[in-house]
Amino acid sequence: MAIDHAYWAAYLLAGIDERREVQAITKQVDDLSIDDAYAIQAALLELQLGRGDTLAGAKLGLTSAAKQEQMGVSEPVYGWVPAASVLDSGQPVQLGELIHPRCEPEFVFVLAEALSGPGVTANDVLDATDKIVGGIEIIDSRYEAFSFTLPDVIADNTSAARVIIGSAGVAPREVDLTTLGCVFEIDGDVTGTATGAALLGDPAECVAMLANHLGKHGQELAAGWIVMAGAATDARPLTAGTVATARYSHLGTVTVTAQGT
Ligand code: OOG
Ligand code: MG
How far is CA 233 from the centre of its chain? Predict the structure, then answer.
């Protein structure tokens, strides 16, 4: 039977708006294909843009072994970064707006030029990049127990919820991105360390994959957008009062505090 993309998009949006878990779509629909999952994701974005939000960028997820093992899904996923999800530096994450948020460190590309697949290479990504900055993403799967299969997480815009972007950055060829380091801390305890190479060998390669994925749908990465390459360490729960800190080599330190309950 044909999948009703608009129905499932509204189902997920209700979970976001009402801050409640919903049952995974694959528990209710047999054989949800990857194409259907991206079509639900597109319909969800359309609903959000229809309410006045705009796009600030795009993201990859599940590009590191750490994340793939944590979530039990072994393929990268692509999603969108709505402008309303971008927090200002120093702005706390409001737990009352979210379901069961987790935080994770991100290498973030700020694009100077658009990138349109097919055929985009890591070199093209570096040519089109203004700078690379550090960030912390707040993910908040809308699914029960933060548990999902590949098509579920795609439909749910790859759990995107909030993001904080650092201000210090490097020019694309100023440093070797594969050796850029990140130490992630929760309340002062180190929970993970990684380098850029943890992201499928090269973060720029990840961004190229995203541009080529979008090219298949007649879409592109726009100039000025932020693009998250995916978390290099596993994600950690964000609970009342949590202070998450990502210390990057060359990219400074990004911190976020969780407020409320
Ligand atoms: C999916 C989102 C993954 C990343 O950086 O790996 C992601 C999830 O883990 O809920 O954003
Ligand atoms: Mg992420």
Answer: 13
Distance (Å, whole) CA 195 – CA 201: 10
- The model's pTM: 0.98
pLDDT tens sequence across 127-162: 999 999 999 999 999 999 999 999 999 999 999 999
Does the beta carbon of 101 sit less than 6 angstroms from any atom of ligand 1? no
How far, in Å, CA of 126 to CA of 167, rounded? 19
Strands 160-170 and 86-87 come out as: parallel
Which residue has a Cα nearest atom 4 of ligand 1?
A: 61
Shortest-distance atom of ligand 1 to CA 231: 5
Q: Which two tokens stand for residue 41?
A: 């994701």
Domain range summary for the chain, segments of one domain joined by + = 5-259
pLDDT, tens digit (0-9, with 9 covering 90-100), for 229-248? 999 999 999 999 999 999 99
Q: What is the residue whose two structure tokens read 């319909």?
A: 43
**Do you find a cis peptide bond into 118, omega within 30 degrees of 0?**
yes
pLDDT above 90 covers a percentage of the chain that reads 98
Among protein residues, the one with the nearest Cα to ligand 1's atom 11 is 61
CB 60 within 8 A of CB 181: no
Ligand 1: residue whose CA is nearest its atom 8: 159
- Which overall architecture, per CATH, does domain 5-259 show? Alpha-Beta Complex (3.90)
Considering only the C-alpha atoms of the chain, give the largest distance between any 2 of them, rounded to a whole number of Å: 52
Measured in residues, the chain has a length of: 261
Q: Is 153 in the pocket of ligand 1 (CB under 6 A)?
A: yes
The confidence score (pLDDT) of residue 1 equals: 73
- Ligand 1 center to residue 229 CA distance, Å? 10
- Interaxial angle between packed helices 5-17 and 34-50, expressed in degrees from 0 to 180 and rounded to the nearest 10: 60
Residue nearest to atom 7 of ligand 1 (CA): 61
